[in-house]
Design goal:
The protein is of the alpha/beta class. About 40% of the residues lie in helices and about 20% in strands. The strands form four sheets. Strands 5-6-7-3-8-9 form a six-stranded mixed β-sheet, with helices on both faces. A six-stranded mixed β-sheet has the order 14-15-16-12-17-18, sandwiched between helices.
């Protein structure tokens, strides 16, 4: 279905190409995961495949050429006044036109039949044919809109409660993402190209999408940082290396890919260490032989001993040449490279009491007549790491906003323990000033010099002039990293996180998981990444249909 052949791309002014000689294929029924750190060229490759930008070399071929492609970009691009029905079914506009035309022609036919003046046979036939064609168009458009698949897709993505005349501008960011995905799935594609389809999907919707993809007969190319989702969906992984800018193809799911790469790295480390031992042995042997030659040369006036010393020196020179050739050999093992990944060090935190947050008969929501949750009596304890799960729209974010004080309770109260300093990471990234930049943001949060602030930001992958880029121009992943930096700079001992890893790549997610494992404070996080939950959560609060249930568990990263 898709053949990507030796694709290369370098942007003007860039020292290195972003893609170099990328090759892979996708056949019907195959699910291919495209992975790599943020900025390695995944979205660039998707845009090349879609024809939005031209490669410097190589080609993209579809088979057949008229293949229907469903492409999901990271953001839904539709005017704010566009009704949902027109996004979900582009044929809906055609349906309205067909209905209007049928009605107009029906009136025309009736008028002609009732006319006292007899119409010509040719005019009558033309009118009836136009009416018949309009009915055919109406029937086709109706099938597209009323197939029944729409109801299943909208329900699976938790959009079935929205009226079809709702304008796109009235939707949240997460709803827009799910709307774009729903429209794509309803377009009857042969090949799916999905860029971050799991963002803003709750666990129920994720599992529904996994089932939909399992039954999909076409091919799919999926960019996602959700490791469980990739494990459940893909049967091949194309991994882009951000150092070499090339791509390798691995058979199997994401976990198998990770296993193969780690095994190769372990083997390379072992070979490199053995090589270092051999290099040290050759160097020591060479130095000892040269020292013996010099000693013999200086210790005697005997011609025979001098000749012997020269022979020893010659052997030392031969060993030096051997070492040089060994170091220059193509078989020499390179030291494995440790990637520049997100580094989080929360440092020394203010100590808190045993109980950090108390929910006393708490009722939350926006309408007293229709609360989202009522009569909550819960305690978040020191060191506890709570994951808040549940379908979208059932009150998870509202609970967090109520705890941090952004939304007042409808009844009851939230009590915060002594010495608790809350670090709140909002889902929509609204805590960042779009006109500011990373350096100014950190300097406003902590008493640092410019040099220390830049060094601090380097741990969060902001290097060079990146620290001066306005927040408005940062990618979602860059904004997420900057917000994590803000929490660290504030010295929070209670992290309240609303979708903290939505736009982080896998290496950054793993580093964040490790940081949370070492974090001595408490964590309350709304998150839909099942792998992440399994790694860090000591407790799960599951919210659905006005009920909160609590589940104590043992995290993998204990």
């Amino acid at each position: 279905m898709l053949v990507v052949s030796t694709i290369s791309k370098r942007f003007p002014g860039a020292a290195e190409p972003i893609l170099r000689q990328v090759n892979f294929t996708i056949n019907a029924g195959e699910r291919v995961g495209l992975t790599g750190p943020n900025g390695c060229g995944k979205t660039t490759l998707l845009r090349i495949i879609m024809g939005d930008i031209a490669p410097d070399g190589g080609s993209v071929r579809f088979n057949p050429p008229d293949l229907r492609i469903g492409y999901l970009a990271q953001g839904l691009e539709a005017p704010g006044d566009t009704p949902l029905v027109d996004v979900l079914w582009p044929h809906a506009a055609l349906l309205r036109q067909a209905e209007a035309e049928v009605e107009r022609l029906a009136h025309a036919v009736a008028a002609a039949n009732n006319s006292q003046a007899e119409a010509s046979s040719r005019e009558s036939k033309a009118l009836m044919q136009a009416y018949s064609d309009a009915l055919d168009r109406l029937e086709y458009a109706s099938r597209q809109v009323d197939s029944g698949e729409g109801e299943r897709v909208l329900a699976g993505l938790s959009l079935d409660h929205l009226a079809l005349d709702t304008p796109v501008g009235a939707l949240s960011g997460g709803q827009k993402t799910r709307l774009g995905l729903a429209a794509l799935l309803l377009s009857d594609p042969h090949l799916l190209i999905l860029d971050e389809p799991t963002n803003h999907l709750d666990v129920t919707a994720l599992e529904w999408l996994e089932g939909w993809l399992a039954a999909f007969s076409g091919g799919a190319l999926i960019v996602s940082h959700d490791r469980t989702f990739l494990d459940e969906t893909v049967n091949r992984v194309v991994a882009i290396d951000d150092r070499t800018h090339t791509a390798r193809v691995f058979e199997g799911n994401y976990s198998h890919y990770v296993s193969v790469v780690r095994s190769e790295q372990d083997k390379q480390w072992a070979l490199w260490r053995d090589q270092q031992v051999e290099i040290a042995r050759l160097q020591s042997d060479m130095r000892q032989t040269m020292a013996r030659a010099v000693s013999k040369e200086n210790a005697t006036n005997n011609d025979q001993q001098r000749r012997y010393a020269k022979k020893v020196a010659k052997r030392a020179k031969a060993k030096e040449t051997r070492l040089k050739r060994y170091l220059e050999s193509d078989d020499r093992v390179e030291k494995p490279t440790v990637g520049w990944n997100l580094k989080l060090d929360f440092g020394d935190l203010p100590t808190t009491g045993q109980d950090v947050v108390f929910l006393d008969d708490l009722t939350i929501g926006y309408d007293p007549g229709v609360p989202l949750l009522r009569d909550l009596n819960l305690v978040l304890r020191a060191g506890e790491r709570i994951a808040v799960l549940g379908p979208n729209g059932h009150g998870k974010s509202t609970l967090l906003k109520t705890i941090v004080g952004d939304v007042p309770p409808l009844a009851g109260r939230v009590r915060i323990g002594a010495s608790v300093q809350i670090g709140y990471l909002a889902q929509q990234q609204e805590i960042l000033n779009p006109a500011s930049n990373a350096l100014d943001v950190i300097l406003s949060e902590a008493p640092m010099s410019h040099t220390d602030a830049r060094s601090f930001l380097h741990y969060f992958l902001f290097g060079g002039d990146d620290v001066f880029s306005p927040v408005a121009r940062l990618s979602y992943g860059e904004r997420a990293r900057l917000m994590l930096a803000v929490l660290v700079a504030r010295g929070a001992n209670l992290l309240v996180l609303d979708e903290p890893i939505n736009h982080l790549d896998v290496p950054s997610r793993e580093k964040f998981e490790q940081a949370l494992a070492a974090f001595q404070g408490s964590v309350l996080a709304v998150v839909h990444d099942r792998y992440f939950v399994d790694q860090f959560a000591t407790t799960v609060w599951h919210i659905e249909h006005g009920t909160l249930t609590e589940d104590i568990r043992e995290p993998l990263l204990a």
